[in-house]
Amino acid sequence: MGKEVERKFLVSGTVWRDLVEADIRILQFYLAAAPGRTVRVRISDGAPARLTLKFGSKARERDEFEYPIPLADAVEMLGFAIGRVIEKTRHHVRHGGYLYEVDVFGGALAGLVMAELETPDDVPDELLPDWLGREVTGEQKFYNASLALGGIPEIAA
Questions:
Q1: pLDDT, tens digit, for every residue of 96-154?
Q2: pLDDT at position 58, please?
Q3: DSSP letter (8 states) at residue 19
Q4: How far apart are CA 146 and CA 86, in angstroms?
Q5: Which of 9, 22, 72, 134 has an alpha carbon 20 to 30 Å from 156's alpha carbon atom?
């Protein structure tokens, strides 16, 4: 079992695009969701897929179990998806020794750009990059399960 410790931000501006190290196209969907727990499948660039189970309701920290699954199984499971399938491109951007994952959403969520910082470190606000907008850590409407199962949040960085 691993711990996922992350902060989430809306992204303002496009300065981060000049700093991108890698791009990953992601298709993800949920098979089950309840308060404090989700079961998700993620397909990244057609590589073997990942089945992820997350537990917990703390804003910054959850228990996470992740397992590789054959791509063919993931494609078949797509037929059991609940809610909308999330399409996004994840961009890896480094700043101040930390890796930020900037997600540019497509499909019904087009226009939404969010960044995640996964680290147990308590990074002070003054060390965060200028291109980060409002922090949305703990705002459930900005978590992927809510984006898949709920309404589309108003985007305001």
A1: 999 999 999 999 999 999 999 998 888 999 999 999 999 999 898 998 999 999 878 87
A2: 74
A3: G
A4: 11
A5: 22
Contacts of 134 by beta carbon, 8 Å cutoff, 6+ apart: 9, 10, 156, 157
Residue appearing with tokens 């993620």: 42
Q: Which residue has the tokens 């992820």?
A: 52
- The DSSP H or E segment spanning 146 is helix 144-149
Nearest to 101 by CA among 81, 129, 139: 129
- Backbone φ/ψ region at 98: left (φ over 0), alpha (ψ -120 to 50), beta: beta
Tell me how far apart the alpha carbons of residues 137 and 23 are, in angstroms, rounded to a whole number.
Answer: 23
Contacts of 79 (CB under 8 A, 6+ apart): none
As given in the structure block, the two tokens for residue 45 are: 């660039």
Positions marked catalytic? 30
Residue 90 near residue 42 (C-beta atoms within 8 A):
no
Q: In angstroms, how far is the first alpha carbon of the chain from the final one?
A: 33
